[in-house]
Amino acid sequence: MHSNGITASGDNPGIMLTHHVRAASLADVEMLVQHRIAMFTDMGTSLDVPTVSRAFREWLVASMGSGVYRAWVVEVDARIVAGGGITLIPWPPGPWWPGERVAYVYNVYTERTHRRRGLARAVMDAIHAWCRAEGIAAVALNASLEARPLYESMGYAETPRPMMWKLT
After folding, report:
1. How much is the pTM?
2. Which of 18, 37, 63, 64 is 20 to 30 A off residue 90, Cα-Cα?
């Protein structure tokens, strides 16, 4: 758990709001779904919202229940305004890390009215702390152009061999 004061901007500059980072639970599934849809929408990605929402909701219930997916949310005034998560992937030891699992980060999203206040960084800090405690030394992600400076400031770098995909 992690709490900090953040300064509001916009209508009420200078007002201190408190944010609280916590592990997400199955009770948060609907907000996690809303944030994933909003993330893709904000990136300009075309999608079938009902289909993706339904499929992601079902995936979350199964994956969170089994511990394969872990998420963290940020609450401001008891309302979830940001979050992100990881999937734990079995991975063979290699030249860059000796571990047997990699954490893959995705769904990092902050609602527009709460951006530029350190909330995504707070989510990433929670993810990194959990990974360290679990002995997971390798964390990977794909960054949007908007989020790239944040991840680079946290030590992420492009790999010389980018991942490639083929959809079948």
Report:
1. 0.85
2. 37
